[in-house]
Amino acid sequence: MLAVKELGHVGLYCTDVEKSLDFYTRILGLTVTDAHPEGHIIFLSAQPESEHHELALCPGRDTPPGAKVVQQVSFIVEDLKDLKQFYALLKSESVRIRSVVSHGIALAIYFYDPDENIVEIYAKTPYKVPQPFSEDVDLDLDDDVLMKIAETGDSPEDVR
Predict the structure, then answer these.
(1) Which CATH code fits 69-153?
(2) Peptide bond before 114: cis, by omega within 30 degrees of 0?
(3) How far apart are CA 156 and CA 153, in angstroms?
(4) In angstroms, rounded to a whole number, what is the distance separating the alpha carbons of residues 39 and 146?
(5) pTM of the predicted protein model
(6) What is the DSSP letter of 24?
(7) Looking at domain 8-61, which CATH architecture does it have?
(8) Where are the domains of the chain?
(9) pLDDT tens per residue, the chain (160 residues)?
(10) Nearest to 133, CA basis, from 152, 148, 120
C-alpha cells in the first residue's frame, strides 16, 4: 500500500514572528536553517544536518485570540533526563504548562507557545499501551517510578 514515510514539517502563522522565533530557538533549541530576506518565512530544524526544517514560522496570524487553529506541535526528546531538563527550563522561563502526562508509550509535557499553540515535548518509552491514554504525572518522581507508571498505568502510590 502506498503511504507517506513521516511528517515533514509544520508551518505556523504567528502574531509576532520575532517572539515566536525567540521561543522556538531559545526555549526549545531549534536552529534557524533559512529565512526569507524580508521575513515572510523562517525555517527551523532540530536536526539541521539531516532535515532542512521541521517548523516554519510565518507572519500574518489574524484569527481572534483563543481560536483553535493548531491541535498541537510535538517534538521528541532523547530521553527522560532531557524531558526533565526541559520541564525545569519551561518553569524557569515562566512558560504556561498545560499538563504533564504519561501516555504509556511516552511521557510528555504540554505547554503554550507565544501564540497559544499547544506544544508537546515527549520522551518515548518501550511500552505498548493502547491509545488514547493520558494520566497526569509528576516529573519530580524518580525515573524508575515514572517508567513503572508508564508501563502499568498505575498511580505513583501503587508502584512504590
Answers:
(1) 3.10.180.10
(2) no
(3) 9
(4) 43
(5) 0.85
(6) I
(7) Roll (3.10)
(8) 8-61, 69-153
(9) 756 567 778 999 998 999 999 999 999 999 999 999 888 899 999 999 999 999 999 998 888 877 778 888 999 999 999 999 999 999 999 999 999 999 999 999 999 999 889 999 999 999 998 888 899 999 999 999 999 999 998 777 777 6
(10) 152
